[in-house]
Amino acid sequence: MIIELICTPFFLIAQGIVSLIPVLDKLPNTIVDTVSLLTKAMSFFPPDVWVMAIGNIVFWVALHLLIGLIKFIVGWIPTMDGG
To answer: Which of 8, 17, 45, 83 could cross-link with 49 by S-S, CB 3.0 to 4.6 Å?
Structure first.
């Protein structure tokens, strides 16, 4: 009962934020155009090639973000900047 009392405001805030998301009756033109472009691209290369390519891109972007974060943290701490 106490946990419900503590969690109720968080659930109300989350419900309010979710209610602000508009309901899409139809897809915007940009999404439809992207899907039609991907269906044309899938006719040239099989899906596993696309999964590997997108996975590779996501991996390298995440790696660069992680390296940048590590460099920022190392440069932020005065005793670890190497100089």
So the answer is: 45
Residues 75 and 81: beta-carbon distance below 8 Å: yes
Buried b (16+ CB within 10 A) or exposed e, 47-67: eeeeeeeeeeeeeeeeeeeee
Question: Range of 69's domain?
Answer: 43-83
Structure tokens at 25: 């009756």
The pTM (predicted TM-score) of the whole model is 0.47
Asked whether 50 and 42 are in contact (CB, 8 A), the reply is yes
Question: pLDDT (tens digit, 9 = 90+) per residue, 19-48?
Answer: 877 776 776 788 778 778 778 877 788 888
Determine contact, residues 56/64, Cβ cutoff 8 Å: no
List CB contacts of 69: < 8 A, sequence separation 6 or more.
none
